[in-house]
Design brief:
365 residues, alpha+beta, 11 helices
Length: 365
């Protein structure tokens, strides 16, 4: 959504920034929120901040979202200070408003927040090699271990049933039945592929309900571009995009990383011959993740990791296809058919996972 620069500057001025705002510009390539790079200047020089307007249509509980973000970042910051880490670069820092709050609402009910921009870092959008994915795994494993003793029940469920795959299937079936945009006839092969996994979709939810898997603090959006890498060392230093931090299963975080990271092609690649679930990349991520988080996981959680990889890939494909059938109102698109292409890449990865399923289980067990 386009927003006038003067309006964005006015919103930035409501936060306790150093110096005067000199420029604002669009920043990043996220699908959900509106993100801006804010530059200020004072006698000490130039300072950079990340200003975001949270999508209220996706995150209806903006206050709960920010309470979660505050609680988690404060917890990690204290742990970093006690362990001799760097609380400025290794965790997001929320900048307060001029009234001392960590966020504000605008007149339309959107939440706005500002964080310090972490310097001398970069992130990946597409996988480069196994070493990079090992670092990504290490970062998310470390994030999980940092929050091992945080009581997940203290967090708000800001998007109810976010990774409840059976619920996602219900929404998908409703979208197929209603066919609001008259697109169903053109995607019958994709619909048929998804429906063959309807029973499998219940696996993790059933294990949670039976008490076989513990509830943990999970990130729930563990894409490779949500890890900041240090330019000097190439090492992962900070996990970002904490909007979906809430109670969940370790399989969700592990699985979403494989979904986004083990495919060397773009998420919306039209040429499916370029799309694959690269087993070596899967193994690299798993090794990095388990190096950090392996000691805190139960045997059942370890076994659930491979299931999570297939589940999250399937679920995301179903969500993309649902959005396409409903008119592309959830995920931002930049061209016609982009959500359909995204769905097809996910389903291609699921099909590839089936070919190496036994090997995937062995790696995590």
């Amino acid at each position: 959504m386009y927003m006038d620069t003067s309006f964005v500057k006015a919103m930035a001025d409501r936060f306790d920034l150093r110096g005067k705002v000199t420029s604002v510009r669009d920043y990043g390539d996220g699908h959900i929120n509106d993100t801006f790079l804010v530059e200020t200047r004072d006698a000490d020089g130039v300072h950079d901040y990340i200003l975001q307007r949270v999508n209220k249509n996706v995150f209806t509980d903006g206050q709960g979202l920010m309470q979660n973000m505050n609680a988690v970042t404060n917890y990690i910051r204290i742990a970093l200070i006690l362990s001799g880490g760097d609380p400025v670069r290794e965790v997001l820092t929320l900048v307060p408003t001029r009234e001392g709050k960590s966020y504000l609402f605008d007149e339309e009910g959107y939440v706005w927040r500002t964080t310090l921009r972490i310097s001398d870092v970069f992130s990946y959008s597409v996988v480069v090699d196994g070493d990079q994915l090992f670092e990504t795994g290490r970062a998310f494993g470390h994030f999980m271990r940092q929050l091992d003793r945080f009581d997940a029940s203290e967090l708000k469920e800001t998007i109810p049933n976010f990774h409840n795959t059976p619920k996602r299937f219900e929404a998908f079936e409703k979208a197929v039945e209603e066919d609001k945009m008259c697109r169903r006839a053109s995607v019958m092969p994709e619909i048929a592929f998804a429906m063959q996994y309807k029973e499998f979709a219940k696996t993790l939810v059933d294990q949670l309900e039976k008490g076989e898997l513990p509830l943990r603090v999970t990130h729930n959006d563990t894409k490779i571009n949500n890890v900041l890498m240090d330019k000097a060392s190439g090492r992962a230093i900070c996990v970002i995009d904490l909007d979906t931090v809430m109670p969940g299963l370790v399989a969700y975080d592990f699985g979403d990383s494989i979904r986004s990271g083990a495919n060397p092609a773009a998420e919306d690649e039209r040429d499916l011959s370029k799309v694959t679930m690269d087993f070596e990349l899967y193994k690299a991520f798993a090794n990095g993740y388990l190096e950090e988080a392996g000691s805190i996981l139960t045997p059942a959680e370890r076994r659930s990791l491979a299931i999570g990889a297939k589940m999250m890939t399937l679920e995301c494909g179903v969500r993309f296809l649902t959005d396409y059938l409903e008119g592309d109102h959830y995920f931002k698109i930049h061209r016609e058919g982009q959500n359909l292409d995204r769905a097809r890449t996910q389903f291609k990865m699921v099909a590839d996972m089936e070919k190496v399923w036994d090997e995937m289980l062995k790696v995590v067990e």
